[in-house]
Structure formats: structure tokens, C-alpha cells
Design brief:
disordered C terminus, 16 helices, mainly alpha, single chain
Length: 428
């Protein structure tokens, strides 16, 4: 089986970068501070790719990415916290069954509603919400019944292996929880126009932050400790895990955009009316982009929760929700390569270059300097640093025309118009 050269080059470069950084971390050639910045930059790249899918490729101005980032962080943190501190898999099972049952319910209800005409978004939202609540109730009872057996099975494994398995599942479940909540939230909200949709998603981020402030009292999650911050989260996120999930995000985004569904998704950004006239289900593709982008945000939040072992609701306030937006605009709307590189540049400039080179006592001025740099860049290069540029593997390459078909086309052109020169004659 012949491997495409662009694919081999892309994955080869990615492997070399991963190995070099991993060796530097393992042999302590990089300080803990720089390692922490690299981990946070990789996490920011994942959440920004999700926003670029929503805003850059689908054209929906969203400020809710940080809210789904927070949902993924606290979901995964609660799973690993209960496993390490209570030696119980109850949280893992509850969320696993809830995600599975509600996901099946969404698929079945979607097929049923597809056969019914004129179902308004609010009625559909009500049905989906009731179905999700029922799925959660069933999931809780199923988890309670299976918890002793599953917990015993995990404890029979080596401790490090069991923790890595639970961590991997918690990261995926954090993404799925964020995705399913975004699906429910998007049903009534995606009918709004672009500006109103942005305001609604900003309101969602604020609501999530307030709920996290009161998670120990209002929601009953005592271990989250509300506004005091959640402690005791195991520090499991490594450069290998961040690299794996970042590469997975890039590949999924690339394959989606190069498919027929991806072209339909981008067409909604270009002209919604024309896309609808061509038979494209605009609402469905808006929801698809929003859900997948939120899934990536949930995964990023899950990884972030296990970097420092501490979560505080103030980390997820609405001011911080502009960070992914700045990165997407800085790198270039609709550019996967630009988003990834801008995420690492953003972290390096903000946390290393400006922090180290500013005089002592002026460290906070970096939050003034980097917006000025962004403003200057937008004036000089409105399309972002990389514009529509993509790395070879990420760039959509048209397949080569077979030689037999090329000869047939040349012969057809010459027979229909003898004055038109052949490609060989035109070159000569």
C-alpha cells in the first residue's frame, strides 16, 4: 500500500517534534515552567481548533467555547477525583451511561422528528431535554448496580494502568458531555442571527461560571468546593497525552473539511441562502459544527484539569472566553495550521517572552502589549498571520487527472475547435 508523500511528511514532522520535546522534558532540559506552558499551549490549540470550526469554517460567531471548556474540565476532574480519593468508579459509570443512553436517545428522537413536519425548535428542545433527563435517571441506577464489580476490576489492575485508563475515558467523556449539552443548547439558539447567537453563547458561559461558583451547594457536588476551587485532582496530563489529542483533533478536522459534509459546512458560511437553495440542511450543519467544536473544547478542558491538579471557577470567566477568539483571528480564520501555530506563539509570547523581558513589577503589562500587537497585526494583515495557508497534508489537494482521460479531453477540445492548440503546442 503506497502512502501519500504529504501524509508521510506531516506525520514524520509531527513525530520528530513530539520526540524532541519529550526527550527534552524527560532529561529535564526544559524547566517545569516551560513544560507547563507547552502543555497549556497544546490544550489551547485544541479548544481554538474547535472554535475555528464553528466560527472560521461555519461562520457562527460564538463566545460559548469557554463554557464547554469548563464543563469538560469539571466533568473529567470529578471522575478522576472520585476514583483516586474514593476508590470508586461510580462517577465514571454514571457519566458513561448517561452519555451513551442520551446519545442513543438523541439519534432515535432525531429520526422520529425527521418524519414529522413543522416541529418548532422549542418543542424539539423540550422533547430532547425530557429524553436526556430520563436517560440520566436510568444511567444513575445502572451505575449504582455495576459500581462494585467495575471498581473491583479496576483495582485488580496495576494502579498506574488503572489510573491511565480512567483518565483516557474521562477525557473522552468530558468531550461527549460538552457535545451533548451543546446540542441541547444549540437547538433553540442556533435559530438566532450571528450577533444574537454570540450574545446567547456569552450568556451561556456566564451561567456556567455562576453554576461552578455554587457547585457545592446548588448542584450538590461537595468535592468541587464551589468558589473555593477544586483541589486533589491527579496531575496526569503529559506531553504525550496532549500531543495525541491535538493530533486527533487536527486529523478529524482535516478529514471533515475535505469531505462532502465539510464542503457543505463551509458553504453555509459563504452564503446561507444559496446553500439552502442547493438543498443543504443549514440548521443541521450549523448544529454539527457547533457540537463538534464543543466536543473539542470539552476534551481540552479535561486535559487542562489534570495539568495543575486544581480548578477554580474564576479561570472560566467570560473575559478568558475571548482568548480562543483572539488566537483564531490571530492565526487566520479558516486556517487549521494558523490556529495551531498561533496557539503556541500566543503562549510563548504572553507567558515567556513578555514576562521575562518586561522590567520587574511590570509583568501585568503583557496583557496590554499583546492586544496592541494583535491590533497592529490586524491593521497590517487583516486575514491573520497565516491567512488561508495550510500545511501540505492539511491542504486540500485535487486528485491528478488520469493520462487516458487527459488525452480524451484534449482530443475532444481539438475536434470541437481546431483553432485551440493542444497543451504541448501551447507550451512550445
Amino acid at each position: 500500500m503506497k502512502i501519500d508523500r504529504n501524509i508521510a511528511v506531516f506525520f514524520g514532522i509531527a513525530l520528530v517534534i513530539f520526540i524532541v520535546i519529550q526527550v527534552a522534558i524527560s532529561f529535564e532540559l526544559l524547566t517545569n515552567f516551560i513544560t507547563l506552558i507547552l502543555l497549556q499551549a497544546g490544550v489551547m490549540a485544541i479548544v481554538s481548533l474547535g472554535l475555528n470550526l464553528i466560527y472560521g469554517f461555519n461562520g457562527q460567531f460564538s463566545l460559548g467555547q469557554w463554557g464547554f471548556y469548563a464543563i469538560g474540565a469539571y466533568t473529567a476532574a470529578d471522575i478522576t477525583y472520585r476514583f483516586t480519593n474514593d476508590n470508586s468508579a461510580i462517577a465514571l459509570l454514571v457519566i458513561l451511561f448517561a452519555v451513551g443512553f442520551s446519545g442513543l436517545g438523541i439519534l432515535l428522537l432525531n429520526q422520529l422528528l425527521g418524519k414529522v413536519r413543522s416541529v418548532d425548535p422549542l418543542s424539539a428542545f423540550t422533547l430532547y431535554l425530557l429524553m436526556t433527563i430520563l436517560a440520566v435517571v436510568i444511567a444513575i441506577n445502572a451505575a449504582i448496580a455495576l459500581d462494585p464489580a467495575v471498581s473491583s476490576l479496576l483495582q485488580s489492575l496495576p494502579a498506574d494502568l488503572a489510573l491511565q485508563i480512567v483518565f483516557f475515558l474521562s477525557v473522552l467523556l468530558g468531550g461527549f458531555v460538552a457535545a451533548e449539552i451543546s446540542f441541547l443548547f444549540g437547538l433553540p439558539v442556533l435559530t438566532l442571527g450571528s450577533d444574537y447567537f454570540g450574545i446567547a453563547t456569552l450568556g451561556f458561559t456566564i451561567i456556567v461560571k455562576v453554576l461552578l461558583d455554587n457547585s457545592d451547594t446548588m448542584l450538590g457536588f461537595v468535592e468541587m468546593k464551589g468558589a473555593r476551587g477544586m483541589v486533589g485532582i491527579p496531575k496526569i496530563t503529559t506531553w504525550a497525552w496532549v500531543s495525541f489529542f491535538l493530533l486527533m483533533t487536527i486529523v478529524i478536522t482535516r478529514n471533515l473539511l475535505h469531505s462532502s459534509h465539510g464542503r457543505a459546512l463551509v458553504s453555509v458560511r459563504e452564503d446561507e441562502i444559496a446553500a439552502k437553495a442547493m438543498g443543504i440542511n443549514v440548521a443541521a450543519f450549523k448544529n454539527t459544527a457547533f457540537v463538534l467544536g464543543s466536543f473539542f473544547a470539552g476534551i481540552a478542558g479535561s486535559l487542562y484539569a489534570h495539568i495543575n491538579g486544581f480548578l477554580h471557577p474564576e479561570t472560566f470567566n467570560f473575559i478568558k472566553s475571548f482568548d480562543p477568539m483572539i488566537i483564531v483571528v490571530f492565526g487566520g480564520l479558516g486556517s487549521v495550521t494558523g490556529t495551531v501555530l498561533a496557539s503556541f506563539l500566543w503562549a510563548l509570547i504572553l507567558e515567556i517572552v513578555l514576562r521575562l523581558f518586561l522590567p520587574q513589577g511590570f509583568e501585568t503589562w503583557r496583557f496590554v502589549i499583546y492586544p496592541l500587537l494583535l491590533l497592529i497585526m490586524m491593521l497590517l494583515k487583516p486575514k491573520g498571520l497565516f491567512g488561508g495557508f495550510e500545511f501540505l497534508y492539511l491542504r486540500q489537494m485535487l486528485p491528478a487527472i488520469p493520462e487516458r482521460l487527459k488525452q480524451k479531453l484534449v482530443g475532444k477540445n481539438q475536434s470541437s475547435n481546431p483553432d485551440v492548440p493542444s497543451p504541448q503546442e501551447a507550451v512550445q
